[in-house]
Design a protein that fits this description.
By secondary structure, this protein is mostly helical. The protein folds into two domains: about 40 residues; about 260 residues, MetI-like (MetI-like fold), CATH 1.10.3720.10. It is built from twelve helices and two strands, in the order αββααααααααααα. The protein has a two-stranded antiparallel sheet. Helix 3 runs parallel beside helix 7. It is globular and about 75 Å long. The N and C termini lie far apart (about 50 Å).
């Protein structure tokens, strides 16, 4: 009798669980899965309009060939790589260093942590407006400090050499809080006994980081690395808010290229092909990171 009741209770809990996750599954199917599958389908069509009666002639690999042969696509892809490398390196290194410093007790620690988290929850368009004012070469307060020392200061967003790195550093500033808080949470799980043993053995600060902290939080660091790589390529909002791809095409990344090909030039088939190729590249990069992660964790 008890087994029957338990079985009925388990089935009821299972139905409740399915009902609870149903809204998420439906939302994912409508807003994520369907657009993704439709985008892959459009990449094989000759599509130049969003109208229902637009041409849907089969194009085969023509859109992919066009995307690969377009020089601006490769330039935008290179800009995306540059953005990603700078972003991932800075956000991981700075996030780790600051998290280790914040893991110690000091006055005002809670307030400082809160201040570091604020940029992460701030709208990127608002961040762009603020930084475009601060880095304005004529009226901005940053270049005003340069003029105090007798220099005109850099043309931050107007320089082809500085526009992309400047936008990337601002993106790092906005994303740093997530990395810091995640690493801090991992550091809380490191047993204090390990630090005490390391001190007794005479280990210095760098040795404690190398032999205690890094091995213990390595899974978290690799998880963050994967997230940061994905986020680094999702840079459309950052670039639009700060440079809009300028000056000229100096900071145009592939996400902006895809958007303009689709909604400015109505090349929906080509834009979809670019998106599929870009997604395949990101998946390949994360697959490599996953293999490196497995090997590194085996050695620790």
């Amino acid at each position: 009798m008890s087994k029957t009741r338990l079985s009925k209770s388990a089935r009821r809990d299972e139905r409740t669980a399915y009902l609870l996750i149903l809204p998420f599954v439906l939302a994912f199917a409508v807003f994520k899965l369907y657009p993704m599958l439709y985008g892959i389908l459009v990449s094989f069509w000759k599509r130049n309009s969003l109208r229902t009666r637009a041409s849907t002639d089969f194009a085969g690999l023509e859109n992919y060939i066009t995307a690969v042969k377009t020089s601006t696509v490769w330039t935008s892809f290179l800009h995306s790589i540059i953005f990603s490398v700078i972003y991932v390196v800075l956000v991981m290194i700075l996030g780790f260093i600051i998290a280790v410093l914040f893991n110690k007790k000091f006055k005002g620690r809670t307030a400082v942590r809160t201040m570091f988290y604020m940029p992460y929850v701030t709208n990127m368009i608002a961040v762009g407006i603020v930084f475009k004012y601060m880095l304005n070469p004529t009226h901005g307060p940053v270049n005003a400090l340069w003029r105090v020392f007798g220099s005109t200061g850099p043309q931050w967003f107007n320089s082809p050499m500085l526009a992309l790195p400047t936008a990337t550093v601002i993106a790092v500033w906005a994303a740093l809080a997530f990395v810091i808080i995640t690493i801090l949470a991992a550091l809380q799980d490191v047993p204090e006994e390990l630090f005490e043993v390391a001190e007794i053995e005479g280990a210095g600060r760098m040795q404690r980081i190398r032999y205690v902290i890094l091995p213990m939080i390595a899974p978290t660091l690799f998880m963050l690395l994967t997230i940061c790589i994905i986020n680094s390529f999702r840079n459309y909002t950052t670039i639009v808010a700060l440079t809009n791809g300028g000056p000229g095409t100096a900071s145009r990344v592939l996400s902006l290229q895809i958007y303009e090909d689709a909604f400015t030039y109505s090349k929906y088939g080509v834009a979809s092909a670019e998106g599929v190729l870009f997604a395949a590249f990101i998946i390949a990069v994360n697959a490599i990171v996953s293999k490196v992660r497995s090997r590194c964790l085996e050695r620790l």
